[in-house]
Design goal:
It is built from 9 helices and 3 strands; from the N terminus they run αβααβαβααααα. It is mainly α.
Length: 253
């Protein structure tokens, strides 16, 4: 699955595992530069360990889990000729090839664990950074960014309840209308996903939680009610001319 950050690639992988009734485990190959991280270290080395694939299967406790290879396009740069590190992308070729992964061999175990029943799902942001031989062994599913209506629905149904719980608030104490969510999505975020939108919601709910505590009436009356919730509109962010709240015992909201 390829797409910009924040569009739900990892969450979609978890949903696939839940729909299939399989265990889910996540492996992050980003930055891996040594082939032994995939195939395992030989036992002659001090601190040798099995490869990440075998460790993921052990963590799942099943031989047919859903293994998510998160950010596979962030694999470490392949070493040059004559180095001993090997190419981790080349080691993944045998893992992802359905015609070969039943004979995948881990150097630490000295066994051939059958990976043919494992469902591998890889995610990436930039397809061009994936080696062509590795990309040839995967089905490419492209995920586009969310529309404004999608962001409002996701924020209302998922992001807002989660941030309310983290801020120790209830839906009866704080209400965020669809118009407010649409204002954030249209004028305060510049992204394909919803991560920045969740940050703005978290910021507003933290301010709401602070305003609900007992405070002097003068402090409550002078607090701005306009753009102080989200900050300046658009990107890059700039200072607003709205008045700031006076200092309080627990700090300014």
């Amino acid at each position: 699955m390829a797409g910009p950050p924040g569009v739900g690639k990892t969450s979609l992988g978890e949903s696939v595992a839940h729909a299939l009734g399989r265990k889910f485990v996540r492996v992050a190959p980003g930055g891996v530069r040594d082939e032994a991280e995939i195939r395992g270290h030989r036992r002659t080395y001090v601190g040798a360990l099995p490869g990440r694939i075998v460790r993921a299967i052990k963590e799942a406790g099943s031989m047919n889990p859903v293994v998510l290879l998160d950010e596979v396009d962030k694999l470490g740069a392949r070493p040059g000729f004559g180095t001993v590190g090997g190419d981790p992308a080349a080691a993944l070729l045998e893992v992802l090839d359905p015609a070969q992964n039943h004979t995948f061999r881990d150097h630490y175990l000295e066994l051939d664990p059958d990976l043919s029943d494992v469902l591998f799902i890889a995610t990436a942001n930039v397809v061009e950074q994936i080696p062509q031989a590795l990309l040839d062994r995967m089905e490419l599913v492209t995920l586009d960014g969310y529309t404004e209506d999608d962001k409002v629905a996701i924020a209302r149904d998922f992001l807002l309840p989660r941030q309310l719980e983290r801020a120790a608030l209830t839906a009866d104490e704080v209400t965020v209308s669809d118009a407010a969510l649409r204002e954030i999505a249209a004028n305060y975020t510049r992204e394909a996903g919803v991560r920045q939108m969740e940050r703005f919601l978290a910021k507003a709910l933290r301010k709401a939680a602070i305003r609900r505590r007992p405070a002097p009436s003068a402090w409550m009356s002078t607090c701005p009610t306009s753009r102080s919730w989200w900050g300046a509109r658009g990107s890059p962010r700039r200072r607003t001319s709205a008045p700031r709240c006076p200092a309080s015992p627990l700090g300014s909201p």
